[in-house]
Design brief:
35% of the residues lie in helices and 22% in strands. The protein has 286 residues and is α/β, with parallel strands linked by helices. The chain has 2 domains: 124 residues, Rossmann fold; 148 residues, Cytidine Deaminase, domain 2, CATH 3.40.140.
Length: 286
């Protein structure tokens, strides 16, 4: 088991869940929260530091003073503006290119990862710590076996979703039984579902909610995550199936979520996805 870990906590509850997991396992770790971005509530006993997003030099000093070897980035982080970042000179020099040349969120995250790696730290993913937050391949909920037409629809719409993720605008979409009808934007997954619920016609024709990795995504950072609140929105919609990527989508409060989908007769399908870029096709294993 890894030790000497720093959690760099962005938005969402995932950093809180992972901190509690590490605490139970008695693994040595610290937490660096980001002012104005971190939303998790951490236990007072944890070794917690709070920094501005642009205070990179101070972050490096904290990591080295605590003899940290491994860093894990948890939670969502969108590309900041220069005004909100307020970088120190060290940070400005390190991230100048990705901030000033209209790069994507993923580009910013990859650049941040490379900065810490160049400083001698090991960047780890959640899979390096545990698999308890992931969902294995399978069908969970009110349906035990899929009809042939459902399998065909899922395969077709997942492939379209993979192609859409090339735009780096999100990880989630809503479909009818033929094509994508709503896409996630910078406001996030919950906002996507709220937009569906407000549109009676789209909701009546909705069929799938799909949340998967972006194409070419670094699987150590910003993995797709779904929690109880999101599923609680979904069960109010006309969506039949919730499609997640097996062993890649982080799912929080599994027991509560399984009870919820059974109550509302919804189904989560966790699938293995193998994408073949040479012919723009994919193989999906149910």
């Amino acid at each position: 088991m890894l030790n000497d870990i720093a959690i760099i906590a962005a938005s969402g509850k995932l950093p809180q869940y992972v901190a509690n997991y590490l605490g139970k396992k008695k693994i040595r770790f610290i937490i660096i929260s980001i002012q104005g971005i971190t939303t998790a509530n951490f236990k007072k006993k944890y070794n917690l530091y709070s920094l501005r997003l642009g205070n990179g030099r101070k972050a490096i000093q904290i990591l080295k003073s605590n003899s940290i070897k491994n860093i894990i980035f948890l939670g969502g982080l969108k590309k900041p503006s220069l005004l909100s970042l307020k970088p120190d000179l060290w940070s400005l020099y390190k991230i100048f290119s990705v901030l000033f040349f209209n790069k994507t969120d993923d580009s910013v995250l990859r650049r941040v990862v490379s900065i810490f790696e160049n400083e001698g730290f090991n960047i780890i993913g959640l899979h390096d710590l545990t698999d308890v937050f992931f969902l294995k391949k399978g069908i969970y909920g009110s349906v035990n076996k899929l009809k042939k037409k459902d399998i065909q629809t899922i395969r077709k719409c997942v492939l379209k979703t993979i192609h859409w993720t090339k735009s780096d605008k999100g990880q989630s979409v809503i479909t009818n039984n033929k094509s994508l009808i709503l896409h996630e934007n910078e406001k996030g997954t919950d906002n996507l579902i709220k937009r569906l619920l407000k549109n009676k016609k789209l909701n009546e024709n909705s069929y799938l909610f799909i949340k998967i990795n972006k194409i070419h995504q670094d699987k150590r950072i910003d993995l797709p995550t779904i929690g109880y609140k999101t599923v609680n929105y979904l069960v109010k919609s006309n969506i039949k199936y919730i499609i997640l990527q097996a062993d890649s989508t982080i799912i929080l409060n599994k027991k509560k979520i399984f009870k919820l989908i059974k109550k509302f007769k919804k189904t989560i399908i966790s699938v293995n996805i193998n994408y073949f870029p040479h012919n723009n096709n994919c193989y999906i294993e149910f």
